[in-house]
């Protein structure tokens, strides 16, 4: 592919990313209604929610409502402390933050009958951290998802083929029933997992185990039919694929007590070819728009232009 080709690819990426954020109509044509929670799980399972996307809850006003609630309230169907409450259908709720979001209907009995939706919202794939956008154009990292800010203390990651990272789950505490129900979420929150990285689960063998499971099994703490299970510690699990990965302890009650870890794995942004061309924006899981991604695309174009000029001289 010649230089013109590169430029066309990048301009296309720019145009593609400039599409609007997605609107998701909850349960599609059925709308926000009383039905099995599995229906909501299945609906959400194949979707990649990102910051900026909008959930649309269709329902007849005064027959349902939508409350965003905490995980605890979601699990117990408690309506006491809602984060927000929408009384009129259709309700449009913009997903402004990453992480898990929980929605229930507060009408008596509706949530416990299954009218509840839990989703996981990822960062806008093309958004970059401030440190990322500060990377000068001479390192044309074409994937606009550099490692997160906490790594800025480390040497620059412009070195292709960097050694994958090992992450010890919950650090020195190890894989255990956590003191806080959000301990694993907090531990994972500032980490940028990439394909090739390794999770290390430290635990006393026969007191815990580690199963990789589906999102549905993670949510319901079901240890039947795990994707994989490791019973001996320390368990090292290589992250071989992008996307969300879910881990639970299958010992009775452990997962329900919070021994569960959900992480999102990105492609290895360091595995760039010397020309920096291989993982161009559009090959990422879900290119999206944002002011930042537009800035990044422009940056990429600028970087390519400077490479081109270097070649021409
Ligand atoms: C989402 O809905 C808004 C408001 O109706 C609309 O302007 C926008 O184009 C929709 N976006 C997509 C991607 O459909
Ligand atoms: C919600 O509030 C009601 C009334 O104050 C109380 O009886 C109930 O125990 C509370 N439920 C939860 C789950 O906190
Ligand atoms: C998300 O942000 C928009 C725009 O700032 C705001 O209007 C909306 O209320 C926010 N939504 C939620 C659920 O916080
Ligand atoms: C990760 O662990 C493996 C196996 O123990 C080791 O070979 C490798 O050097 C470690 N990588 C880092 C970055 O610590
Ligand atoms: C990841 O790939 C390695 C090497 O191909 C393999 O040994 C390992 O079982 C894989 N891990 C998972 C979790 O699939």
Automatic annotation (TrEMBL):
Matching InterPro entries: Cupredoxin (IPR008972), Phytocyanin-like (IPR039391), Phytocyanin_dom (IPR003245)
Signal peptide: 1-20
GO CC terms: plasma membrane
One Pfam family, short name: Cu_bind_like
Keywords noted in UniProt: Glycoprotein, Metal-binding, Signal
Ranges annotated as biased composition (Polar residues): 159-171
GO MF term set: electron transfer activity; metal ion binding
SUPFAM superfamilies: Cupredoxins
Biased composition (Low complexity): 140-156
Domain Phytocyanin per the UniProt entry, residue ranges: 22-123, 165-267
Region (Disordered): 123-172
PANTHER family in the record: BLUE COPPER PROTEIN, OS08G0482700 PROTEIN
Name of the molecule in the record: Phytocyanin domain-containing protein
Species in which this protein is naturally found: Stephania japonica
């Amino acid at each position: 592919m010649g230089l013109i080709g590169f430029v066309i690819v990048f301009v296309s990426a720019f145009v593609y990313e400039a599409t609007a954020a997605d609107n998701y109509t909850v349960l599609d044509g059925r709308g926000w209604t009383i039905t099995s929670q599995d229906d909501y799980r299945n609906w959400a399972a194949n979707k990649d929610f990102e910051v900026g996307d909008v959930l649309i809850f269709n329902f007849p006003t005064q027959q349902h409502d939508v409350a965003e609630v905490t995980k605890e309230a979601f699990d117990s169907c408690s309506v006491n402390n809602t984060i927000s409450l929408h009384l009129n259908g259709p309700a449009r709720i913009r997903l402004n933050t990453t992480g898990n979001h929980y929605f229930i209907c507060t009408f008596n009995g509706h949530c416990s009958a299954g009218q509840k939706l839990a989703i996981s919202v990822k960062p806008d794939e093309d958004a970059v951290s401030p440190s990322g956008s500060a990377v000068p154009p001479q390192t044309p990292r074409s994937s606009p998802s550099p490692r997160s800010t906490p790594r800025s203390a480390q040497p620059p990651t412009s070195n292709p083929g960097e050694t994958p990272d090992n992450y010890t789950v919950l650090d020195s505490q190890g894989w255990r029933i956590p003191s806080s129900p959000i301990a694993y979420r907090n531990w994972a929150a500032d980490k940028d997992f990439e394909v090739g990285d390794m999770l290390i689960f430290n635990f006393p063998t026969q007191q815990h185990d580690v199963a990789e499971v589906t999102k549905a099994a993670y949510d319901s703490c079901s240890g039947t039919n795990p994707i994989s299970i490791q019973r001996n510690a320390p368990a090292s699990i290589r992250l071989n694929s992008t996307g969300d990965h879910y881990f639970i302890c299958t010992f009775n009650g452990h997962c329900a007590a919070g021994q569960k870890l959900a992480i999102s794995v990105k492609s290895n942004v360091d595995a760039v070819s010397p020309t920096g061309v291989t993982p161009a924006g559009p090959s990422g899981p879900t290119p999206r728009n944002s002011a930042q991604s537009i800035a990044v695309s422009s940056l990429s174009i600028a970087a390519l232009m400077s490479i081109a000029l270097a070649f021409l001289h």
